[in-house]
Amino acid sequence: MNFSIQHTSGKARAGVLTTDHGDILTPIFMPVGTLGAVKGVTFDVLRNDIKAQIILGNTYHLYLRPGAEILKQAGGLHGFNGWDRPILTDSGGYQVYSLSKIRKITEEGVIFQSHIDGSRHQFTPENVMDMQRVIGADIMMAFDECTPYPADRKYAHKSMQLTHKWLERCYNHFHKTKPLYGHEQGLFPIVQGSVYEDLREQSARFISQFDSPGYAIGGLSVGEPTETMYKITEQVCDILPQNKPRYLMGVGTPANIIRGISHGIDMFDCVMPTRNGRNAMLFTRNGIMNMRNKKWEDDFSPIDERSPLDIDRTTSKSYLRHLFVAGEMLGPILASIHNLAFYLRLVAEARQAVIDGNYETWAAEAEKQTMTRL
To answer: Is 304 exposed, middle or buried (0-12, 13-18, 19+ CB in 10 A)?
Structure first.
């Protein structure tokens, strides 16, 4: 796995991350396919219309179903779902954070109850690495504790130290094991430290000691003020190795992505395009549209007549509103496709602005436009 930076504009970068399942042009947005599927979107649409270069799977959810045995028999997630491009898997650390009422964290790992049937399970750094080997993701994430917000400094420090201890175990076990399906896998460590700048610096310097193909920033976009997220992102990017990709986990809005790129982030993921799409919210270059609003009832103009996406030019705002009001499943599907395609076009435009050397000018206008409510 190799990463090369081709152009810079300020701190923004345009690069190429090479994997055995194909090249990823950065900056990139990665659609979330928690259970091996992006909700409501077929893979041919992801490839051809949305132009997705990499998708996410989730270790916690795939461990519970279909389970390791089925995935191994299928030849990993690529063989199971037929996606032939790169895949990244989250380690389950965020699910540990989100399932706070049905889990117990110890230094050994996490004991948790399945949200499906209440059965008890344990995740350790070692078996999380083993599970991601079985899944066969091109990029594997280290097992971490996603520190909640708000958290006092004492808890954040303890949580960060636990993440560091788990990283050492993940890294050692990763290098004791081999890929199962003949393609290379890379392990990304994760920076934690909540909103405390000294902890974030300590964590960024600690994980930078591990020779990895990329590094991630976790524990942001969990409720902290947006400006705090931006400040920490910039701080951590200035510390992490300059020649490796940086992945800002779980972020975010179009404006968040534009600002993150300006600080040196290369990779993003978020459920927002599909989750908000299922709830009738469309992101556009002109602003945000709530498709349930009555104002669209008799608006027969296309969703976006300048979009290269066919459904944007042939579907009217009135018709899309009708689908949502009537409860037709096509409404959330069309909105999800639209939003994902918009996100991928946005990062492609950002990449071109970096190549052209005018990212700051482009970003200022794009951020302002995408935050408008129509």
So the answer is: buried
Could you give phi then psi for residue 188, rounded to 5 degrees?
Answer: -105, 120
Q: What dihedral angle (degrees, nearest 10) is formed by the CA atoms of 300, 305, 307, 309?
A: 50
Helices (H), the chain: 43-48, 59-64, 68-74, 76-81, 93-98, 125-135, 153-176, 197-208, 226-239, 254-263, 272-278, 310-314, 317-326, 330-356, 359-370
pLDDT given for residue 103 in this prediction: 87
What are the chain's domains? 2-269 (3.20.20.105)
CB 12 within 8 A of CB 354: yes
Q: How many CB atoms lie under 10 A from the CB of residue 347?
A: 24
Predicted confidence at residue 196, as pLDDT, reads 98
Catalytic residue among 49, 138, 269, 312: 269
Phi, psi torsion values for 282, nearest 5 degrees: -110, 135
Report the alpha-carbon distance of residue 109 to residue 121 in Å, rounded: 11
CA 163 to chain centre: 19
Residue 332: asked if its preceding bond is cis (omega within 30°), the reply is no
Gap between the terminal Cα atoms of the chain: 43
Give tens-digit pLDDT for 312-334: 999 999 999 999 999 999 999 99
Under-70 pLDDT residues of the chain = none
Say what the pLDDT of residue 101 is.
77
Residue 32 CA to residue 95 CA, distance in Å, equals 14
Amino acid at 262: S
Bond from prior residue into 66 cis (ω within 30 degrees of 0): yes
Active site residue 269: yes
Rounded alpha-carbon distances, angstroms, from residue 315 to 84, 311, 319, 334, 337: 30, 6, 7, 9, 12
Q: What is the pLDDT of residue 99?
A: 75
Residue 192, Cβ neighbours under 10 Å: how many? 30
Q: Write down the pLDDT at residue 93.
A: 77
Token reading at 268: 């993003």
What pTM, to 2 d.p., does this model score? 0.97
Catalytic residue among 90, 138, 266, 312: 90
